[in-house]
Design goal:
The structure holds two protein chains of two kinds. By secondary structure, chain A is α+β, with helices and mostly antiparallel strands. Helices cover about 35% and strands about 25% of the residues of chain A. By secondary structure, chain B is mostly helical. A two-stranded antiparallel sheet of chain B has the order 1-2. In chain B, about 55% of the residues are buried. Classes of the chains: A alpha+beta, B mainly alpha.
Amino acid sequence: MSRSSSSPAGALAALVILGIASLALFTVYVKEGDCSGESECGPLHTVQLGAAEVLRPVRSIVGMVLSPFDAVEDRISGALSTEEKRLREELRAKEELAAQASRLERENARLRELLNGERAVYRYGPLARVVAPVGGNFANRVVINVGTADGIEPNMPVVVGKSTLVGRTTKVSRNTAEVMLVTDQSFTAGVRIIPPAEFDPESGELSPAVTSEESSYGEGLLKTSLDGYLGVEYVALSARAEKGDYVVTSGRAENFELLYPPGLLVGTVEQASSQDIKQFKDIVVDPAMTPDDLEEVRVIVDW
Amino acid sequence: MEQTSVVRAALVVALGALLDAVIGPYLTFGWVSPHFTLIAIVFAVSAMGELHSVLLGFFGGILLDALGGGLFGVGALGGLLAATLSLRTRATRRKSAERLVLAQVVAMTVAGYGLIQLVATNLARLGAPPLGEYLMVGLIPDAVLNGVLAYLLGDWLLRMTRSRMRSWEAR
């Protein structure tokens, strides 16, 4: 194509028109149904879902090809932090011992709750494989290989293992679902901060003392700050929150039922500080899941 | 005399969008990631007709929006910006320094695209970082690295998108 085939005036007009069209597309995209909750999928979201479905095999292949590099990276980082790893394992073993001491008591309470039919029982979707990461510079999301055909819907909690929260589903197509990870800046969840003795991360069982109304354990909103730190906001200065405490989903806020069932492990408190001039505590959370290590997850479809 | 084949240019831009969607997330480090589509557009339209350039930039951006899963319309604006900046530098380009100039255009485009993305993310009320921090830690390294990447890929991209015009075609 030679340069003289189009006039500058025509190109300028096209530029203006297409610029306006781009802004219109952006507006429609933000305003239309985003496939979450009760809202239906708008046309532009549908286009993206279709593209994700088409790209699924390619992403799977690329993911498989790149997985050895992930393993090498893991080994290198593992070799560099052997001492830290040993200390962490030691700490974890001690935490487990502490947890074991109160396990019998909790089991007793759990059985009592079971009889009352109050214990949260999760119904999981099929085991899902993480196909690929997606999103731009400001997103932290992955695509998994289950979709509406497997009973998955938007806004369902996604866990790894039995009850470690990974994120929640956002856009769901027939065979794929996009998962917004807990480390995404748009992710929020109501959480409770509880000491290791009151929670068993293996089973996700909470001590009844935690859920009682007299409980003084910290409650707040899990959110990744603009600096990239995962933290809990709006925790009262008087509430208990210490380094090493578990951060788990609270399930309810007063009379409101939240998006996630209670007792899903999010991480541990890495730093908890309070200043008199501030209204709330500053809490930094070390997430229990590592986005790069995610391979297989489950979606909780009912509880 | 050299000219750009529209079909080849479109294929290169499509390949860029596909790479952005499939490999891009694996190469994302914080706010820095390769922008293959923008690089492809800048090089592909460098010797095209103006109207064709604008159209290729827009539809390349739309493809990026559709495959990438980000905010729709942002990629289209980025594509238009890439095509426009590439066209604007045409008069100042010399054959010997073409690759270097286009790499600079890529860096400017990526910086502009980053700002568009930041504004759009704020408008959509999604979590976006503060401007100052993003400029220092995200935008500038992103622009520089993409400029370097464009310079490295430049020769190949120019070879892929252009074909030599025969004398009777030129007439």
